[in-house]
C-alpha cells in the first residue's frame, strides 16, 4: 500500500537517533583506577540492593 511505502521511506526517529554513536567510555586499560572504581561502585550498589531486597523478603516471611 502507499502508506507502507511512505513509512519505509521515512525512518523512525529512534533509528536516526541510533545512527549517532555515543561517546565511548574510557577503557579500564587506559585508566585502570577509574575502571576499577566504577566496577567497585557497581558491585557495592548491587550488594546494597540485594541486602535491602533480602530484608524486605524476610519481613514478609
List key phrases describing it.
61 residues; mainly alpha
Topology:
Blueprint: H1 2-9, H2 13-19, H3 32-60
Region (Disordered): 1-33
Tally of helical runs: 3
Work out the radius of gyration: 22 Å
Structural class: mainly alpha
Helix content, binned percent:
over 70%
Record field, number of beta strands: 0
What's the domain count? Answer: 1
- Sheet with the most strands, sense and barrel status: none
Let me know the average pLDDT: 67
Output the helix-strand order. HHH
Identify low-pLDDT runs. none
Question: Which overall shape is indicated by the principal axes computed on the Cα atoms?
Answer: flat
How far is the N terminus from the C terminus? 58 Å
User: In what range is the share of β-strand residues?
Assistant: under 5%
Describe this structure in words.
By secondary structure, this protein is mainly alpha-helical. The chain has one domain (2-60). It has 3 helices and no strands. The chain has helices at residues 2-9, 13-19, 32-60. It is flat, with a radius of gyration of 22 Å. The termini are far apart. The relative contact order is 0.06. The mean pLDDT is 67.
Amino acid at each position: 500500500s502507499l502508506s507502507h511505502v511512505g513509512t519505509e521511506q521515512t525512518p523512525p526517529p529512534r533509528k536516526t537517533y541510533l545512527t549517532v554513536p555515543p561517546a565511548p567510555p574510557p577503557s579500564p586499560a587506559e585508566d585502570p583506577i577509574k575502571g576499577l572504581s566504577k566496577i567497585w561502585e557497581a558491585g557495592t550498589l548491587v550488594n546494597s540492593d540485594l541486602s535491602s531486597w533480602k530484608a524486605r523478603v524476610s519481613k514478609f516471611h
